[in-house]
Specification:
The complex is a heterodimer of chains A (413) and B (265). By secondary structure, chain A is α/β, with parallel strands linked by helices. Chain A folds into two domains: 213 residues, D-Maltodextrin-Binding Protein, domain 2 (3-Layer(aba) Sandwich), CATH 3.40.190.10; 169 residues, D-Maltodextrin-Binding Protein, domain 2, CATH 3.40.190. In chain A, the strands form three sheets. In chain A, strands 1, 2, 3, 6, 10 and 11 form a six-stranded mixed β-sheet that branches. A three-stranded antiparallel β-sheet of chain A has the order 8-7-9, with helices on both faces. In chain A, helix 3 crosses helix 15 and helix 12 packs across helix 19. Helices cover 72% and strands 0% of the residues of chain B. Chain B has 265 residues and is an all-alpha fold. Chain B has twelve helices and no strands. Chain B has two domains: 41 residues, no CATH class; 202 residues, Orthogonal Bundle (MetI-like fold), CATH 1.10.3720. Classes of the chains: A alpha/beta (413), B mainly alpha (265).
């Protein structure tokens, strides 16, 4: 019932948009909508697509520059330019361009999810819906999956195509910890027994926020209630009471007795790499592989997930801005980036090592075997354990609310 | 005694960190308490060169910084002289007004300017970036130049004019040589500020203008100290390089037979 309502609202929204004054945009969207995939590829031929994305990881940069660029050129004759920029600034730029009425933008593809998507969608910055026209998305992905229909509780409405999938894991030094904790209570016990050897990034950091969400999932009376209903302050208030109690109990046993917290994941990673703390954490279950390889993390690094409450995972997406000048090229690029071959190369630890949102059941045997046989490295826990522990994200509005509350309830105590 | 103190402090606070940074860029991570062992690695530098736009980015950063510096000096000297040597109504108010850009957060200024730049067609182009880099630099240059003119006083200038030297000759033979220390500090400050602008460059340049910080800043969020050290070294060398260029230009400007080089003072 709820879903039909949402679809109806979506259609009504589209209808209203069609009636509004800026006919040019909608015409362009309509044009592409009516085109067949062959026609789109014809248009894309020779276009230059500028992919704007965060650029602080050589593995990811290398994947784009050394693998995707030449392959995409060969396959569709589309030139890909990778522009390193923080996602926040990308959205900011689009917002200003919209206000200034600039309809020939420089951005053709954006990599994002969560709050950034919400902001972009609410401000009508995105082109689409386009995902129903992407052949590889239709062929190899479970398009009905809630993971693709919702992005941190915001409906994607076909405005973004899933590019990758990550899950939250903890990393620990096996030379110092024999048995990693499996529940929040065991984690508390670990902190008590090893004072100063555990801490988490302060709220406000992407990873710190996610850690607090795990505690919320674990301490809430029902995870389903959190996941199913939109954000409400009352529910959040009652459900989070035990979260603050738990974190406050933990504080005296943390690194520097909780007097200060690492302000970012980078700082926590540095403490871990120096052996000051024995655990670090983060989204992307394969993250440690590359860091161990480079000698930044100790060789004895291994990973674990909490069985209770589980491990939060999310999907990240690719979108096309409304004022892109190369929408067809961008669609061709998305089709390639979502294809099994590109996803397989992305999974390889040499480049990025990140998990694929592809549905293995929809692949042919050869491709499926390639995915299943690929060795993701020793620090990555097996897929079954990850799948069993998987938890989806809650409404994006919880994120800023928990941040503020954490400062009041924990940091300033 | 005083001298040895100076040298030991200089070594401790300036030379030692610089050497350490150099070492860090060619060695893997060392853990506190581990025995000192040197395994050399070029990983930091190969990551640095990996982005094939890096040379272009270096060149563009330099070009932007030097253009910003030249505009700064031109505006700063005129404004500084006016503020120092003439008196008019509302002078102190004007002085305060000129400092105001420093108190506006860069992000707020950038967003407001972005709309204007789009309308003027300067967004996504390096000239637009030059203009926006003037916002956080000009106030400093004006302050420095005003102090320079305060120190210079008007006597020498008046004397030169009395001896029938035109304003340009006075500038070249009296003002510029005597203001050189102020010019140097302004140049160094402006170049460093311009080269470290991430937000302003990112928004106005919109990703079409790729300077060093655009490539380098995202790496600040990584824990890979080896790569960071390599980037930081280049980042530190660039301003020195830019100052050398300005120094050469000013040599060219101050003619050989200038009043001061004849040793008449």
């Amino acid at each position: 019932m709820k879903k039909t309502m949402a679809v109806l609202t979506g259609i009504a929204g589209l209808f209203l948009m069609g009636c509004s004054n800026h006919t040019e945009d909608t015409n362009a969207a309509q044009n592409i909508k009516d085109k067949s995939w062959e026609e789109i590829l014809q248009e894309a031929d020779g276009e230059t697509v500028r992919l704007y994305m965060w650029g602080g990881d050589e593995g990811i940069n290398q994947y784009i520059d050394e693998y995707v660029k030449p392959e995409l050129q060969a396959e569709h004759n589309v030139t890909l330019d990778r522009i390193p920029l923080d996602t926040n600034e990308i959205i900011q730029k689009l917002e200003t361009e919209k206000r200034a009425g600039q309809d020939d933008g420089t951005i053709d593809l954006i990599w994002m999810n969560g709050e950034n998507f919400k902001r972009a969608k609410e401000n009508d910055l995105l082109f689409g819906p386009f995902t129903d026209q992407i052949p590889s998305y239709q062929a190899f992905y479970d398009t009905e999956s809630l993971d693709f229909q919702y992005d941190f509780g915001t409906e994607t409405d076909g405005l973004e195509a899933p590019w990758g999938k990550v899950q939250f894991v903890f990393h620990y030094d096996a030379s110092k910890i024999q048995e990693p904790p499996a529940t929040l209570d065991e984690l508390m016990k670990f902190a008590e027994e090893n004072p100063g050897r555990f801490t988490y990034p302060a709220a406000g950091d992407f990873t710190g926020d996610a850690f607090i969400r795990h505690v919320l999932y674990g301490k809430a009376s029902s995870i389903e209630q959190l996941l199913d209903s939109p954000f409400s302050e009352e529910v959040a208030e009652t459900e989070s009471e035990e979260v603050w109690a738990y974190l406050n109990d933990m504080t005296p046993h943390l690194w520097r007795s909780g007097a200060t917290y690492p302000s970012s994941l980078t700082e926590l990673d540095r403490l871990y790499s120096q052996g000051e703390v024995w655990m670090t954490m983060g989204y992307n279950e394969a993250r440690a592989e590359d860091l161990v390889e480079k000698g930044i993390f100790p060789e004895t690094t291994e990973s674990f997930v909490l069985q209770q409450p589980g491990s939060i995972g999310n999907t990240h997406f690719l979108s096309i801005p409304d004022n892109s000048r190369a929408k067809e090229g961008a669609m061709a690029a998305i089709d390639f980036l979502l294809s099994p071959e590109a996803q397989l190369a992305k999974l390889e630890p040499a480049y990025w090592g990140e998990n694929t949102p592809i549905d293995l059941a929809l692949l042919d045997d050869e491709d499926k075997a390639a995915f299943e046989e690929l060795d993701r490295g020793e620090t990555v826990i097996d897929q079954q354990t990850l799948t069993d522990a998987f938890l989806p994200e809650i409404d994006a509005e919880y994120v800023p609310w928990l941040q503020e509350k954490w400062i009041d309830e924990v940091a300033s105590q | 005694m005083k001298r040895s103190l100076f040298y030991s402090l200089a070594i401790l606070f300036f030379l030692f960190p610089a050497i350490l940074l150099g070492l860090k860029s060619v060695t893997p991570i060392w853990r506190w308490g581990e025995p000192l062992s040197f395994n050399w690695t070029l990983r930091g530098w190969t990551s640095f060169w990996m982005d094939d736009r890096i040379l272009h980015a270096l060149w563009l950063s330099l070009l932007i910084a030097l253009t910003v510096t030249l505009i700064n000096l031109a505006v700063g000297m005129m404004a500084g002289k006016a503020l120092s040597h003439s008196s008019f109504k509302g002078k102190s108010m004007l002085e305060t007004l000129l400092l105001l850009p420093l108190f506006v957060p860069a992000m707020a200024a950038a967003i407001g300017l972005h709309i204007t730049m789009i309308r003027l067609g300067l967004a996504n182009h390096w000239t637009g970036v030059v203009i926006v880099h003037l916002v956080p630099t000009i106030p400093y240059t004006i302050k420095i130049m005003k102090a320079g003119y305060d120190r210079l006083g008007s006597d020498l200038i008046d004397q030169s004019r009395m001896l029938k030297a035109g304003p340009f000759r006075t500038f070249r033979e009296i003002e510029l040589p005597l203001l050189l220390p102020s010019v140097r500090s302004a140049v160094f400050l402006v170049v460093t500020i311009s080269m470290s602008q991430y937000v302003l460059t990112a928004i106005i340049g919109g990703g079409s203008v790729i300077t060093l910080p655009i490539i380098y800043y995202p790496f600040l969020q990584s824990v890979d100290d080896t790569v960071m050290a390599a980037f930081s070294i280049v980042f530190a060398i660039l301003p020195v390089f830019a100052v050398l260029i300005i120094e050469l230009i000013s040599r060219f400007f101050i003619t050989k037979n200038s009043f001061f080089n004849r040793g008449a003072v």
